[in-house]
Amino acid sequence: MATLTIGTTQREYDEGTKFEYVAKDFQNEYPEMIALVTENGKIRELTKSVKKDAQIEFITLGDNIGHKAYVRTATMTLIKSINDVLGKSRLDEVMVEYAIGQGYYFELKLFGEALTSEELQKIKDRMQELVDADRPITKRAYPKEDAIRLFEERGMTDSRQIGFDDYTIRQRKQTLYPNRCKPNP
Q1: Of 52, 79, 131, 157, which is most buried, counting CB atoms within 10 Å of its CB?
Q2: pTM strictly above 0.70
Q3: Does residue 110 share a domain with residue 86?
């Protein structure tokens, strides 16, 4: 058992309990949805697990960091949906270019005709399917050379220029979809 201190409240949870279950126990005390936690000051995704006694704080969608996590998740869901619906025969590349106010500018490079309203509806439907499936997005770290090889295998040669650190490259995964991506081979 691990004792978690949340504000002035202490509760015991089995080691291995995911933070999403801890967050559910406290959600009614927050006006916004809980998106992340801090464990002893370190930000953690809700899919991470309780390992030992800790001081916990919740980060909601109303917090800047929580909102950014939500936007990142929505962006990955959109990119995956685009890839799933259009596939490699129709989609050359999808890019998240920059923010415009509260939105983002995406660019699709397609083979053939422009995106149809039917394809757009299928992308929306696929996004909803992914949300309804409630599958976690996991994060992995790769040594730099392995990540560069992975990007090259997927035809993402300009991804090498985005400023990787010397040690690892973090991948958030439903499948590998950084800001610039090509469909899976």
Answers
A1: 79
A2: yes
A3: yes
The CA distance from 148 to 161, in Å, is: 10
Q: Are both 96 and 125 inside the same structural domain?
A: yes
- How is residue 161 written in tokens? 């220029």
Q: State the residue range of the domain holding 15.
A: 2-62
Gap between the Cα atoms of 56 and 38, Å rounded: 6
Residues 126 and 176 in one domain: yes
* 23 sits in which H/E element: helix 19-26
**pLDDT tens by residue, 116-131:** 999 999 999 999 999 9
Q: What is the tens place of the pLDDT at every residue in 116-175?
A: 999 999 999 999 999 999 887 777 777 878 877 877 777 666 544 444 444 444 444 433
Verify that 50 and 75 share a domain, yes or no.
no
> Which one is predicted more confidently, 31 or 173?
31
Q: Give the burial class of 37: count Cβ atoms within 10 A of its Cβ; 0-12 exposed, 13-18 middle, 19 or more buried.
A: buried
C-alpha distances in Å from residue 66, one per residue of 31, 50, 125, 178: 13, 20, 25, 20
